[in-house]
């Protein structure tokens, strides 16, 4: 699937930058164009792989290149005011060569949280290609203002995109891990999962063609209907024998050996499908009730087979209760592992979102109380008790 990726804000820019690096490393052909948009000049300068002429600094008249300070209302205003500057970078994208736009943002800060829904709405108005969002939720330890930003942005963003893919930092941060180290590892996890998902349908490394092709239309159909999506992933290291069989198999003609290999391959695939679905999802949720699903098995072609994928697909059908479960393979010749990626679209039983909203409501009430108290305290401080002083005007 060929994408035009637009990273909005610090987190969004870093993730898209990582996607571009991943694309070059794996020759996966996913990122047809990449743009980074930010209100902070330093964040744009820190990117390594997005071309410099595709890095857009907005809000200079308002914030002078220093960011919006976690104020997502200001982030939204700046995005509205400078949308033409963003469009200038998008104009260089060969839109006729892409399957969809992907707007990537961290939802806890100011620029990405406020600006990404604005950009998504703008793209929907101009282009016929689907516009997807990839939103990253802040960890619960990052503070009330970030939770409040995320809850408000999530509510807006999901309405402006064709589907919102979500990654929850709270489910992935390790205790005792440094902030920078944690984010680097999280970004790698994001790019690995979505890289395999969006890589499906493109010709794999080494030019191999899939047996059960998952093309971009199947990804689009799985994401159709809007709502929220999550992605599961599991992998296992394998011996990469590109000849397609073991030594005994090649000497004897190996019918019995081939049958054992086939059974082992099928069992490995079904095991990885279960691990991907029931393990740590990008957004933890109950998979029962997911409206649509897509299974992609990636790895050396000799470790993939139609029988295993079909069994895995049927198992997902049973677990989700959905009749719309697609599946296929993505052969990668030089890979040393087999990976299962499951896209669950239209999920609704998501406790984390309800928790996020509740914490945000409490944070909003606390902020309102603090502001009122602050105004009262200031009034008490500057006014004299006897009301004898007169202000200048």
TrEMBL record:
- Family, per the entry? Belongs to the CetZ family.
Localization recorded for this chain is: Cytoplasm
| Protein role | Involved in cell shape control.
Ranges for the Tubulin/FtsZ GTPase domain? 2-195
Name of the protein in question? Tubulin-like protein CetZ
Lineage, top-rank taxon, reads: Archaea
Alphabetized UniProt keyword annotations = Cell cycle, Cell division, Cell shape, Coiled coil, Cytoplasm, GTP-binding, Nucleotide-binding
Q: Pfam families from the xrefs?
A: CetZ_C (PF21011), Tubulin (PF00091)
InterPro entries for this protein: CetZ (IPR032907), CetZ_C (IPR048737), FtsZ/CetZ (IPR045061), Tubulin/FtsZ-like_C (IPR037103), Tubulin/FtsZ_GTPase_sf (IPR036525), Tubulin_CS (IPR017975), Tubulin_FtsZ_GTPase (IPR003008)
GO MF terms, alphabetically ordered: GTP binding; GTPase activity
What SMART domains does its record include?
Answer: Tubulin (SM00864)
Q: Coiled-coil stretches, from where to where? A: 353-384
Q: Which residues bind GTP?
A: 10-14, 110-112, 142, 169, 187
What Gene Ontology terms describe where this protein resides (cellular component)? cell division site; cytoplasm; microtubule
Q: Name one GO biological process term.
A: microtubule-based process
């Amino acid at each position: 699937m060929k994408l035009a990726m637009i990273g909005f804000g610090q987190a969004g820019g870093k993730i898209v930058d990582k996607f571009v690096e991943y694309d070059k490393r794996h020759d996966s052909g996913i990122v047809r164009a990449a743009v980074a948009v930010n209100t902070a000049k330093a964040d744009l300068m820190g990117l390594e792989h997005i071309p410099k002429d595709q890095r857009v600094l907005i809000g200079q008249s308002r914030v002078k290149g220093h960011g919006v300070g976690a104020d997502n209302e200001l982030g939204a205003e700046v995005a509205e005011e400078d949308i033409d500057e963003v469009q200038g970078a998008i104009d260089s994208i060969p839109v006729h060569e892409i399957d969809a736009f992907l707007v990537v943002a961290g939802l806890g800060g100011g620029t990405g949280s406020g600006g990404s829904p604005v950009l998504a709405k703008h793209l929907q108005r101009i282009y016929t290609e689907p516009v997807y969002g990839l939103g990253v939720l802040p960890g619960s330890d990052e503070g009330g203002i970030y939770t409040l930003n995320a809850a408000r942005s999530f509510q807006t963003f999901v309405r402006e995109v064709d589907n919102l893919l979500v990654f929850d930092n709270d489910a992935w941060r390790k205790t005792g891990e440094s902030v920078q180290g944690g984010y680097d590892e999280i970004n790698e996890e994001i790019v690995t999962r979505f890289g395999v998902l969006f890589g499906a349908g493109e010709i794999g490394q080494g030019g191999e063609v899939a047996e059960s092709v998952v093309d971009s239309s199947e990804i689009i159909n799985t994401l159709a209907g809007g709502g929220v999506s999550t992605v599961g992933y599991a992998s296992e290291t394998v011996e990469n024998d590109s000849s397609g069989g073991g030594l005994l198999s090649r000497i004897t003609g190996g019918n019995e050996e081939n049958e054992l290999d086939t059974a082992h391959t099928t069992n490995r695939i079904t095991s990885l499908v279960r691990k991907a679905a029931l393990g740590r999802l990008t957004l933890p949720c109950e998979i029962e009730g997911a409206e649509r699903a897509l299974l992609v098995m990636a790895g050396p072609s000799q470790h993939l087979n139609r029988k295993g994928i079909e069994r895995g697909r049927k198992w997902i059908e049973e677990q989700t209760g959905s009749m719309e479960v697609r599946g296929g393979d993505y052969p990668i010749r030089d890979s040393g592992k087999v990976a299962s990626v499951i896209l669950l679209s239209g999920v609704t039983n998501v406790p984390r979102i309800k928790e996020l909203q509740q914490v945000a409501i409490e944070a909003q009430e606390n902020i309102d109380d603090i502001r009122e108290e602050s105004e009262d305290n200031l009034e008490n401080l500057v006014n004299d008790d006897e009301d004898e002083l007169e202000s200048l005007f």
